[in-house]
């Protein structure tokens, strides 16, 4: 078993702050931390941090979240943005809704400097907007969604659109096409389930 810091830049890189220590260690990848925990070298009560987490938190708490969001990055989503969207939606819905999918813009729009996320649950479709201070979560009940559309923008990107009551359309552009297709498929299933 190796406890040397991780060199692979492709995964989330975690830093550890052991209880009673002032100097953080790392970066480590998730499997490195699990090895350290299994060996008893670090405790679930030691603190961990990664970019996007916001503050140091107990390892046990973070890995519960990490385990839950890991299956949302199958289509190349930005892991940090998925984590933010997951936490924001979970803070609002708690155990009353299940998150089925999270898509993340590949690049920000012309007027926005931040990426938006689209989150699908069995009750809502959420659009997460990052603001200067915090986040804004736009929520639409499935029964208010008239239809959803997808459009290929070219270069592997697409636009996902939500039609609300036949009066308003919300577009989220520049999402990787694979994620747009998955959003469209799931949204059609959710619409059928609520109709």
Structure description:
Residues 1-9 have low confidence and may be disordered. The protein is α+β, with helices and mostly antiparallel strands and 195 residues long. A hairpin with a 7-residue loop joins strand 3 and strand 4. The N and C termini lie far apart (54 Å). Strands 2-1-3-4 form a 4-stranded antiparallel β-sheet. It folds into 2 domains: 14-69; 73-194, PH-domain like (Roll), CATH 2.30.29.30. The chain has 4 helices and 11 strands. 29% of the residues are buried.
Summed up:
With 195 residues, the chain is of the alpha+beta class.
How would you write the strand order of the largest sheet?
2-1-3-4
Uncertain spans: 1-9
Please give the CATH class of the largest domain.
Mainly Beta
> Termini separation (Å)?
54 Å
Q: What's the CATH H-level superfamily name of the largest domain?
A: Pleckstrin-homology domain (PH domain)/Phosphotyrosine-binding domain (PTB)
CATH architecture of the largest domain: Roll
How many distinct beta strands?
11
Helix proportion of residues, in percent? Answer: 25-40%
Series of H and E elements: EEHEEHHEEEEEEEH
- Average pLDDT number: 82
Over all CA atoms, what is the radius of gyration? 19 Å
* CATH topology annotation of the largest domain: PH-domain like
Number of helices: 4
How does the overall form come out from the CA principal axes?
elongated
Overall number of structural domains? 2
Structural class: alpha+beta
Largest beta sheet, briefly? 4 strands, antiparallel
Hey, roughly how much beta strand do the residues contain?
Answer: 25-35%
């Amino acid at each position: 078993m190796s406890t040397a810091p991780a060199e692979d830049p492709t995964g989330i890189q975690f830093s550890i702050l052991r209880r009673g220590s002032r100097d953080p260690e790392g970066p480590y990848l998730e499997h490195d931390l699990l090895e350290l925990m299994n060996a008893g070298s670090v405790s679930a009560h030691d603190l961990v941090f990664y970019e996007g987490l916001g503050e140091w938190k107990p390892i046990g708490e973070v890995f519960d979240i990490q385990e839950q969001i890991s299956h949302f990055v199958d289509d190349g989503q930005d892991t940090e943005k998925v984590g933010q969207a997951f936490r924001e939606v979970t803070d609002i819905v708690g155990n009353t809704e299940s998150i089925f999918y999270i898509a993340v813009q590949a690049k920000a729009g012309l007027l926005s400097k931040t990426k938006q996320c689209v989150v699908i649950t069995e009750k809502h479709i959420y659009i997460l907007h990052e603001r200067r201070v915090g986040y804004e979560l736009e929520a639409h009940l499935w029964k208010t969604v008239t239809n959803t559309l997808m459009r290929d923008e070219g270069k592997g990107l697409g636009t996902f659109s939500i039609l609300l009551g036949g009066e308003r359309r919300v577009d989220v552009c520049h999402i990787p096409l694979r994620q747009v297709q998955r959003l469209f498929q799931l949204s059609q299933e959710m619409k059928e389930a609520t109709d």
